[in-house]
Task: inverse folding
């Protein structure tokens, strides 16, 4: 009995070690592959018809303003006003009546002077995978500037490129490393999950009819 317990313990210990190694490898691999396609400098961002702004809530659970949200809005505004892009797909979670990331971001962008007819809403961006793949399958975009914080852009750009999209990430300003600790820790697991999604061929939760973005 004792030997059996010992063997079971060894087995689970090996699984744990293998899991840690896999997570570390996935994070290293995604960061390395996406590094050349990310920048904080607008001058280094290629011109594209459309940007994909990845959604997040405008407030935290404690009711305080979410710096991730406002930094992304600032980055999207600066990118649009620089002339690098003509349209912005705002993709995020709209899973409940009182929580609507795309519309909150649209309102914030309009307040910054972005014309509303240049903003396209995607209410089914429940995951980064969904947002990226839907930008191609629903909105017909094969070249994108993705806007989020660097840690998130690494994963989004990697996913986009693996799904046949020519993608470049424009990095919004990050938040204080202590304030963003929980988010950054969660990102380690999210990057590992990317490979499982690719292996299993996971698709967006919702499809839909194609939506034409006008030529400029």
Result:
């Amino acid at each position: 009995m004792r030997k059996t317990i010992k063997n079971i313990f060894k087995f689970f210990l090996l699984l744990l070690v293998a899991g840690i190694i896999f997570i570390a490898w996935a994070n290293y691999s995604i960061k390395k592959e996406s590094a050349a396609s990310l920048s904080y400098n607008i001058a280094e961002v290629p011109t594209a018809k459309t940007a994909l702004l990845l959604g997040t809530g405008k407030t935290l659970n404690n009711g305080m303003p979410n710096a991730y949200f406002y930094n992304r809005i600032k980055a999207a505004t600066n990118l649009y006003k620089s002339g690098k892009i003509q349209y912005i797909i705002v993709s995020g979670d709209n899973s409940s009546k009182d929580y609507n990331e795309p519309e909150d971001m649209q309102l914030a962008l309009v307040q910054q002077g972005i014309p509303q007819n240049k903003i396209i809403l995607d209410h089914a961006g429940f995951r980064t995978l969904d947002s990226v793949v839907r930008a191609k399958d629903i909105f017909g975009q094969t070249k994108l500037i993705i806007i989020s914080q660097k840690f998130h852009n690494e994963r989004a750009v990697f996913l986009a490129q693996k799904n046949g999209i020519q993608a470049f990430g424009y990095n919004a300003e990050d938040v204080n490393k202590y304030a963003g600790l929980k988010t950054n820790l969660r990102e380690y697991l999210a990057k590992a999950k990317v490979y499982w999604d690719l292996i299993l061929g996971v698709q967006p939760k919702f499809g839909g009819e194609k939506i034409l973005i006008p030529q400029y």
Notes: The beta strands are 38-39, 50-54, 87-91, 119-122, 143-149, 166-172. The chain is about 45% helix and 15% strand. Residues 1-200 form a domain with the Rossmann fold fold (CATH 3.40.50.620).
